[in-house]
Amino acid sequence: MPDERPNILIFVPHDLGQHLGCYGVETAHSPHIDRLAAEGVRFKNSFCTAPQCSPSRASIFTGRYPHSNGVMGLTHGEFGWDFGPGERHMAELLRDAGWHTALVEYGHEAKPGREHKRFEEVLAAEQYEAGRGHCDAPVRVAAVGEFLRRRRGHEQPFFLEVPLVEVHRQQFGYNNPPDTTKGIYVPPYIKDEISSREDFAWFQGSVRKLDDAVGSIMATLEETGLAEGTIVVFTTDHGIPFPRAKCAVYDPGLEVALIFYQKGAAWSDGRVVDHLISNIDYEPTLLEMAGVPVPENVQGRSFAPLLAGGDYQPRTEVFGELTYHGRYDPRRCIRTHTHKLIVNFSSGHSFMDPSQQWRPKCVTVQPPNPAFAFHPVVELFDLREDPWERVNLAGSPEHEQVQRGLLDRLHAWMQETEDPLLTGIPLPPMHYRAWAALRGE
């Protein structure tokens, strides 16, 4: 009797947010991803736990918030964050349940060497291990194609994580030609000027290359006869790599694409779901769909019943956080369908600059001069009237009740999840290495 357990293929590209045609960005060239959405299930109000790579990715694959799983900052180089003791990656849970597990090159959710040990197979690892940096889409696509052809006819199901490096900015900008074939879209929180339009043209070129890569992999999945037995998840780690998006807990930093698709499955029917979803919900959902027990410490909620048409209690809020990225910038937020409340624990600048350029090409509309704008303690936005979070309502008498209620809910969440910010400043891994250096260790 054939093994009916599903394969799982999850795309997690960098820095994409919801900058896709299927999410209403008409200038984005994304026909292959749009087709996934048209034939699968697209989640309209999908958010990540953190607006940066490693913490968000760690949430996807543990079902836990960054301050709970230990990854409160970047994992590579001197940053050195990693899973806390006893934390288990979804790949490990599926491996123990009988799945063959594979990662393409480097997932960026844990320290590189330790991360690879969580998988049975690492594809296209040679370039990264040789110190030549991340391999781009063609190398990864070829590695995935070879893997899928090898898995054709296997009874054992597989779990494959595909963390495409597009559309992350590279050291000297984008590696791909700009794309203006459908025009250029500059979001309203960025000043629409020549330099920003140029930056978004290059960004759209990388989106196009990413979409081509997804299309190639999906074609191979079909060609190998694996499509009907494979749950495909398309998401990203956080919002787009522009000011007030990536590295900020405003909606443009936390909103992420999320599409579930399986050829021939009854639930894969072109729906658009409005419910609030957090990326800590992915792991329990996929484990339930695979028939694998969900660990008790998972903080996410399975939405598998929503896909299957069963009883599902929608979320009333999602939570987001930032602790470390390039520096310490502790922020916590709660987001409902109608409001966003942010609490800032330091007096840093209003947002980190994610442009990775000495002279950024994009400037925000609000604040008009980011170099002289610093965090207030509390920020409150009415998303119905102010979807781009420009007008801070915190402290206004007419919003006092809403503000107090959201503060209480945010505080309760921090207590329930034992957020270390409630007891002090969580020290980064480099702090302990500095102590060791002082002691001559």
What does this structure look like?
The chain has helices at 31-39, 53-62, 66-69, 90-96, 112-116, 125-129, 137-151, 194-223, 251-254, 282-290, 304-308, 400-416, 429-438, and strands at 7-11, 41-47, 100-104, 121-123, 158-162, 230-235, 258-261, 271-278, 318-324, 328-335, 339-344, 378-382. By secondary structure, it is of the alpha/beta class. The strands form 2 sheets. An 8-stranded mixed β-sheet has the order 4-3-5-1-6-7-2-8, sandwiched between helices. β10 and β11 (339-344) form a beta hairpin. The protein is globular.
Give the secondary structure arrangement, pairings included.
Blueprint: E1 7-11, H1 31-39, E2 41-47, H2 53-62, H3 66-69, H4 90-96, E3 100-104, H5 112-116, E4 121-123, H6 125-129, H7 137-151, E5 158-162, H8 194-223, E6 230-235, H9 251-254, E7 258-261, E8 271-278, H10 282-290, H11 304-308, E9 318-324, E10 328-335, E11 339-344, E12 378-382, H12 400-416, H13 429-438
Parallel strand pairs: 1-5, 1-6, 2-8, 3-4, 3-5
Antiparallel strand pairs: 2-7, 6-7, 9-10, 10-11, 11-12
Helix pairs in contact: 7-8
Short description:
Helices cover 29% and strands 16% of the residues. With 441 residues, the chain is α/β, with parallel strands linked by helices.
What is Rg?
Answer: 21 Å
Number of domains: 2
H and E order? EHEHHHEHEHHEHEHEEHHEEEEHH
Oligomer: single chain
**Percent in strands:** 15-25%
Q: What's the N-to-C terminus distance?
A: 58 Å
CATH T-level topology of the largest domain: Alkaline Phosphatase, subunit A
Give the overall pLDDT as a whole number.
Answer: 93
Describe the strand arrangement of the main beta sheet, using strand numbers: 4-3-5-1-6-7-2-8
What is the CATH architecture assignment of the largest domain? 3-Layer(aba) Sandwich
Helix content: 25-40%
Q: Figure out the total of helices.
A: 13
Largest sheet: 8 strands, mixed
Total DSSP E strands: 12
What class, by secondary structure content? alpha/beta
Which outline best applies? globular
